[in-house]
Amino acid sequence: MKVEARLFLGVAAFCWATAVLYGIWTARDQGHVEVAGLAALILSGGLLGISGSFFWFVSRRIDARPEDRSDAEIAEAAGELGFFSPGSYWPISIASAATVTGLGFAFFQMWLVIVGVLAILFTVGGLLFEYYVGGRRPAA
Predict the structure, then answer these.
(1) For the chain, what percentages of helix, strand and coil (3-state, to nearest 5) are there?
(2) CA-CA distance, 96 to 32, in Å (whole number)?
(3) In degrees, to the nearest 5, what angle opens at C-alpha 124 toward C-alphas 128 and 115?
(4) What is the pTM of this model?
(5) Where are the domains of the chain?
(6) Is 74 helix (H, G, I), strand (E, B) or coil?
(7) pLDDT tens digits, residue range 42-83?
């Protein structure tokens, strides 16, 4: 987790330093500070800081992973990382439902947002229960 904490906190510091330089640059160039870009940089740094602080907080409370140690061997990180479905169509369905919802928000069509949210709920349920019903159900 230390690697992730350093990454997120480093990018957050970069965003904040860029915000300072951007504010000075726009103040000199235009005569006033351009607030939209400055706010975007400050808030982006804040969101990255929240994530980085979480990873830093967690990294202090767990044992060091092989990725966090400089003396670790490659073989120490070998093994199963989790289960990833090799032939599932549900992720593309979730993405399509999210696209419909985003289009509903973009064009302010509340009926399309409702249809999209219902489609997201249905497809997430399909992904969640994919291995509990039907032909892929484990033998009991």
Answers:
(1) 70, 0, 30
(2) 42
(3) 155
(4) 0.61
(5) 2-72, 90-136
(6) helix
(7) 999 999 999 999 999 999 999 888 888 889 898 888 888 777
